[in-house]
Amino acid sequence: MATPKRLTPAMQQVEDLKSQYPGCILFVRMGDFYETFYRDAEICARELDIILTSRSSDPEGNPIPLAGVPYHAADSYISRLVRRGHRVAICEQIEDPKKAKGVVKRDVVRVVTPGCAIDPAIVDAPDSRYLMALLPDRKALAFGVALLEISTGEFFITTVPKEEGLSGVASLIESKRPAECIIPERTDHQVVQILSRYAVCTTERHPGDFDPDDATMRLCTHFGVATLEGFGISGMPLAVGAAGAALAYATITQKNALSHLTGLHVLQQSEDMVLDAVTQRNLEITRSLSGDQKKGTLLSILDRTATPMGKRLLAAAITAPETSMEAINERLDVVEWFLRHPLERNQIGELLGVCGDIERISGRIAYGNASPRDLLSLAGSLVCLHEVSAILAGDTPLLAQRLAGEITHFGTAIDLIRSAIADDPPAVVKNGGVIREGYDQALDELRGSAGSGRDWILSLQQSERERTGIKSLKIAYNQVFGYYIEVTKPNLSRVPPEYERKQTTASGERFTLPALREYERTIADADEQALAREANLYRELIDNLGTQVPLFQAAARAAGMIDLLLSFARSADRKGYVRPILNEGAALVIRGGRHPVVEESTPDGFVPNDT
To answer: What pTM, to 2 d.p., does this model score?
Structure first.
């Protein structure tokens, strides 16, 4: 009787990992590729338009479907899958393949989902990308809602009362446009239909994740507090349950402590004007009725922002307008100041225009995966914010002064980044060349050793040309054969006997020498040690900056608000808008009013009218 065929150790490893992440496409790092298998491979071949092939066979003898993408291009492929609603589990090699005994150890390092993504390829747009958690009461009349933006660290909760019910949920979805929503298993089908109507990727989770008591403990542990009273969320058990579920889901997918989530904020329905979903659509606040997502909307007309933080804040401000007269007048004071000070307005606009997305860079620092270019962008942005703060710290409205005060002096962080990171670093650390020369003596010595070896090889090339009389002789390098001496066919008769043949090519032969091999080992050892040293230095730098993430986030929020108010001033200056006079009464008097959206789309001009 034939012995039943078994899976190879590598495929058994894949199956074991896949069983831990059902519902996810498993991207398995194998050498220079990320491979997918079985149904995952079929999905990837269809969605990514890549070749579907097969690898070995299952125990029944059926070929195992296989599809792969190069590791250096994986981010773009993962982005395409996630944008189409898939979840991708990234499985990396967690040991050096050269030192592995048997199958290389692998494990999932993070799961990328539509609502839990920090990769620039996915969250490069300035728009917020929320994970929503929705917890209905037993009759699906009232709802607890949490909104988590893991790339920026925003974390909001609110309760939709039973008087608003599903229409209130729809209004929140319309204004916040979550990329993904988690709900308890077996949630009422009407809730699922609402999410489907708005094309929100929906993920069911175990009801225990939403338990308010467990959620309270989870949130207290995360924020390092004994109770949640300081967040002002007492009497909101449904919202707390939703927040706890969102935190649990984000923690599981990111395999990270989420240290940049430093607060939990209540969306105060009483302080903001509630615009239901129908009103938001009909007023074309953020999305046009014509089908184009942004063109011809109030958002597109008012958007004169210069930063990603300001753009996100503008969208939030017009979908849930402030109702506090005091807060509105404070903002209008700053807008009016900008209008009366065009020089400062232009200066601040230019400074904000070169700022990067400080919120999301801060998030990547907290995750430990900020790129060298992220850090240089952060340093440059902080320098600009210092200048913005200096301009607003003088004789300006109180709100402007408070915002200026939120921008800490980051001289130490700026100096650290600029002293450590090269002027034009590569996109990733593993290729080297990230740490500036002179920052670390040990690294400089290792680089010097490798450089000396390469200089010797260049001198060897010249001396061998002279010794052999082969003017076209050259010494080159590739990853397969290392360093080699290349001689073309017409010159092979001049090759000295001590040359050791390595490879025959169409145009000639490749050789080596004992001394060349020795220097190759010297260079390789120095390069390997330099890369390891550089990686350690970069990790230390990220850890150092990680302690300042809350301060970076505060500065980013202040910059966003400054940018928002500056955008209002720019719009007012360009369109001739005027400051309203507010009162607590019910009367509304408009003289010469103009509809901003209609005015923009009317070729013959809009006729102002009174209301």
So the answer is: 0.85
